[in-house]
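Our consortium's second objective concerns turning raw sequence data into structural hypotheses that experimental partners can test. To show how far this objective has progressed, the report includes one record in full. It was chosen at random from the queue rather than selected for favorable results. The single chain below, 149 residues long, was entered without modification.
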Amino acid sequence: MPPHELLLVANSQIPTHQRLWCVLEAHVTLGKNKVFRVQMTGKTHHLLTSNDTEFIKTEMELYLADVVPPMQKTDDLTDMWSSGKITGKDYWSQAQQLNNGMDDIYQRIYKAQKKVLSMKDKELINLDNATTSHLDNELMIWRFITGEE
């Protein structure tokens, strides 16, 4: 039985949609109308190929790096309060400081999300820049995809 799933592997080196061989595989697979699910592994923001992607990717990476320490501090603070190591007043004071810091982190990611949501699909994932390491392969694949071959 043939597979019914297409797996895209996103990475920080080059977006999947800029790797022309990946574009060809998706084109052929989806053209057979037998795929019922496209699954992606990796970080979703690595799929973006628009001009603004570096800003968006940087903000996502910073967000992911910045959000972990405060979340851990929140867990630690809760443990300290529940074990009686700090008073309720100290807990709420420190929790408010953590919350303010998280708000700043969320505002940065909100700007990036707003930019993504305001873009058209063609701007987010642009296949025009998809290439291969060999020009002959690139020309052959583009002719196949556009139906010129």
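The partners drew two points from this record. Residues 51-118 form one domain. The chain has five helices and two strands. Both points have been shared with the crystallography group to help prioritize constructs.
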